[in-house]
Design the sequence.
């Protein structure tokens, strides 16, 4: 037996960050992973998609050569090379996580884990055999996987999830993407930039349905200009594979229609990986497959000197890598008995990296009104921002939603150039209870995209300077 202060199951952004923080706090740590360090994020999600999105950005810019005064002769876009580059980026970061584990003296165990008790983890080793780990605390960080549509088979060839799509070397000539959330919209942008014919099917009334309605409208307009077909309020009935593609039957207010394409991508969200871990057997409470945790990430299972914790997608809180990392730090600090924080999931930043980019936190304008707030809204378009105009990327806006009575920041909603990099200022302001007036009075360098934040903050009081 090997005895540890904390054993972490899953080495994604929740698990490996928890391991580092626990080691920093003087705990003896083991990290169990059945596939690859970095989990979905580094290997099949966040990181490789951002590499491909960069390629798509370059291709889109080259297509605007006349506007910028240059000509590209004999241009060819090699999608396979783009995917190969994305794999190299992922490999580099995975190696970096391995180096961090060695630096922090975290014992990495390669295999599949089962909880035999709140203090014993049995690992079926990838190299063969088994290993029993005795531990004072356990953190379950097993993440999530693509959610399926009942009755529709994902074969990995014609019908894909993000996992197969991210390593696909051959660009599909056409694709039906089911789901207009972040995953679906990002793949739609990438494939369309390379010339694929894309149809997006979303059963809710608009793309990016969790975002502010004005943001969704801006993104929909941009996609339609690029000839991406978007079918909202439309439900998929069935998907059949054919000799050279797929046949997707959908229905909406206009009746049933059939869409034909080379491939279909199912992108309707993720479900927690909580099966086969022995969680129910030792008394861990699950709700619809998600592990129930308190503010310290602790489950209902506790024993003298230790407990079972959970972080990341398996908790069903918010399936975002940075949320998993934040939870991992909280769990490690709770175990070590040091001061930690209570996470506010409503205030967590949310990002979609299509074009235009989308970034937000907090309540939409409609949600704030539904909760009874009298709101003030400040909105500033990037078309009035000098940096955005000079950059040639000026669709979109910054929108701040504030409580009229107190000035409290209720939400921020951004769509436009590099807004995922602008969002943290608003999140920081909200977390430290700054008001739009204080943002407006903070001098922002000129010319920068960040001036749009300052202008939107002025706009909350009807005093935007340049609009």
Sequence:
């Amino acid at each position: 037996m090997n005895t540890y202060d904390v054993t972490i199951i899953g080495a994604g952004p929740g698990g490996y960050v928890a391991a580092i923080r626990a080691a920093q706090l003087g705990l003896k740590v083991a990290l169990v992973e059945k596939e690859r360090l970095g989990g979905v994020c580094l290997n099949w999600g966040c990181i490789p998609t951002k590499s491909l999105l960069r390629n798509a950005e370059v291709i889109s810019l080259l297509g605007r050569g006349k506007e910028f005064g240059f000509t590209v002769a004999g241009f060819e876009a090699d999608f396979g090379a783009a995917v190969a580059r994305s794999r190299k980026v992922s490999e580099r970061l995975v190696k970096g996580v391995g180096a961090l584990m060695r630096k922090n003296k975290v014992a990495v165990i390669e295999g599949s884990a089962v909880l035999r008790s709140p203090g014993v983890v049995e690992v079926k080793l990838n190299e063969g055999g088994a290993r029993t780990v005795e531990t004072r605390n356990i953190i379950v960080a097993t993440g999530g996987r693509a959610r399926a549509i009942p009755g529709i088979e994902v074969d990995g060839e014609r019908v894909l999830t993000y996992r197969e799509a991210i390593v696909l070397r051959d660009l599909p000539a056409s694709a039906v993407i089911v789901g207009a959330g972040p995953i679906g919209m990002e793949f739609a942008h990438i494939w369309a930039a390379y010339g694929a014919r894309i149809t997006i099917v979303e059963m809710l009334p608009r793309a990016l349905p969790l975002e502010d309605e004005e943001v969704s409208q801006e993104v929909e307009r941009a996609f339609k200009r690029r000839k991406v077909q978007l079918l909202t309020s439309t439900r998929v009935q069935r998907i059949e594979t054919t000799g050279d593609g797929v046949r997707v039957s959908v229905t909406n207010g206009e009746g049933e229609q059939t869409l034909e394409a080379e491939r279909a991508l199912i992108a309707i969200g993720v479900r927690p990986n909580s099966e086969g871990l022995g969680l129910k057997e030792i008394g861990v409470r699950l709700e619809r497959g998600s592990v129930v945790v308190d503010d310290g990430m602790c489950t209902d299972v506790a024993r003298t000197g230790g407990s079972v914790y959970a972080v990341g997608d398996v908790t069903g809180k918010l399936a975002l890598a940075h949320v998993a990392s934040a939870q991992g730090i909280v769990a490690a600090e709770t175990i070590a008995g040091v001061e930690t924080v209570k996470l506010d999931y409503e205030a967590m930043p949310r990002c979609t990296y299509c074009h235009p980019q989308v970034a937000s936190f907090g309540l939409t304008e409609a949600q704030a009104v539904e909760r009874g707030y009298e709101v003030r809204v400040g909105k500033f378009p990037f078309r009035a921002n000098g940096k955005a105009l000079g950059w040639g990327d000026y669709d979109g806006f910054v929108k701040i939603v504030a409580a009229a009575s107190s000035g409290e920041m209720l939400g921020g909603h951004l769509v436009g150039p590099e807004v995922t990099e602008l969002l943290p200022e608003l999140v920081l302001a909200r977390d430290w209870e700054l008001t739009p007036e204080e943002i407006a009075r903070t001098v922002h360098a000129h010319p920068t995209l960040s001036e749009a934040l300052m202008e939107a903050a002025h706009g909350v009081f009807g005093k935007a300077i340049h609009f």
